[in-house]
Queue: 3 jobs
Job 1
Amino acid sequence: MSLRETNISLPNEFSGLERICLTANGNLQRVLSSWFNKPVIVQLIKNVSVPICHQKSSEHSNPILQKYDREVNLICESKVVCNAISEVIIHDSFVLDLIMNKGVGIGQLFRTATTWWREYTLKIIGVECKIKEYFPNGMFKNGWIEINNNEKDKLINGVQELNSENK
């Protein structure tokens, strides 16, 4: 396998769509909605604030502000298509306000009007890569690739602004 090749090897008993679901990170609701071509809603079962062991500021430059144990069902046509159990750890006061006071869901935290993104870490002994990938909204719509450069520039500027805000 070359350094530029991706290979995720899962057992053969999983179908192609099951493998996509198993590798989806933070966007499973959209994947399932796309597959069923119907709305998939989030049914909140549990969202419990968990006590935080307070850290000394010298130990952690990015302290935990809030922690939740969360459980939701993803529902399509009155059927549970997924049950998700999460531990949500919040380090940023702006994000805490979005969740507690503005009704923003977990998946919505990774999308704006012009972009969506994901962050992940690749790690082996001796090296750790923290990666942020930004994508313009609408890029999978027919004709998007042909839109004029002024529109593309707006999208690129939105990504750059978002990237500078998240640093």
Job 2
Amino acid sequence: AAAGEACDGASGPDCEAGLACIGAMGATSGTCKTFAQIQTKGLGDACNLDAGELCQEGLSCAVDQLGMPATFKCVGASATGAACRPGVPDPCPADEYCDVDQMSMNIDGICHKLPTDGQPCVEPAIPFGPICAQSHTCDGTKTCKARQQVGGACVEDEICYSDTCEGGKCVAHPACDAPEMP
């Protein structure tokens, strides 16, 4: 769907490349918008990921206060070892994450390096799920493993860039079968 058109919901189409579907919830359709239309919030402004009220380029929409619902505001980037709060995108440098104590519900954290090969995966507050450094994946034992090229050793598909592990080695992903012509 083009900018300004309905998207997702019960039967709406996906937005064209470079657009985001804002407002879709369950069977309710949203509207396709450009990033220029939704990245309008400045430093210190309230932001709302669900409503498509995003921060300007270079800022992060970070948790400001926990509650029902939680509130968010636009913050600048955090440096290595500096204070941070979970946000989208993560306010920490590219190879780091905002490490918070989720058990205590404390939203103040510190930027830490993402784990690499052999280290335990981390589960940051945002995004949800275990993560590792770039070019690594979290295996079934919740340990970070370096992703492998074709020919590299593997025990599960996720370790391979091709997502295909056979006989203990990464192999090329099988080609899609072309539909038969009538």
Job 3
Amino acid sequence: MSFLTSIFRKKKEEDYETILSALALDIHKRQVRLSEIRLRERRSTLLVTLYTLAGWVAYISLWYTGLLPKRGGRAASGLERAVKAAPVIVGPIIILFVRRIVQIWYKRKGDAEEKTLQTLLKQQRAKVEEIKQKTNYYSTRDLIQRYDDSPSNPGLRQRLVPAPPPTQPSTPQRPPAPPNGQAVSMTPNPFSPQPPTPLPSNPPRKQWYDKLADAVLGDDDHTPNPSTSRYALICEKCFAHNGLVKESMWEDAQYICPKCGHFNRSVNSKKQARILTPSPSSTASTPLPVTA
């Protein structure tokens, strides 16, 4: 009996809300962790630069004033003087080399975190597409756009109703009130379920040494700042992450994805193309001139 029950038992459906919420939470954590890695990279680079530079300056001072210890208390030979003067010349190269090692180490950590973030974004997109396929989202949307005759589709109304003949101007009348169904739908329902609140992004705040790092090392394009928001560049075709841009540059940013080679147009160019290209409803509703 239990064997027959297990055969005819319906398979438990996946809880998509729980899966998507877990993915969104994980993506948020990865983004915050990536911001912390970028900020720690700048802090460590600044501290290493300051400490090595201070040590180099202190050595130059001791070498210039002759306070370096001598071997056996006798006069230094030519080889000993050359050895003592070598750190003065090689010091800047050592400083740059140590800085580069710190940057490479943090870059490897940041790249690994960013790769994990891209994988999570692809999983989220794939799960959304799976939900759309299971709920017949695309076919339902096409049927609604094709056969919907509601007032929300002005193109069909303009094609079916002929234009009235011109009349003399009269007293302006008040527009008709919307139907009761529309009035009720526009009224917010306090008992209706509200959409889930998006997770706030809390990037680490910059301290005084971070501002000093910006002054010494230059402005950082990876570390988010509350005063300057950053927008992620996601490819429209393969959904790969292509870096961050400032809020003022986001609408004009267009680029070629290095992964799939797809050209992603800017938001402003898409808006201009949408304005210049006439829609089918507007061309069909344009009245034709009538000759007498």
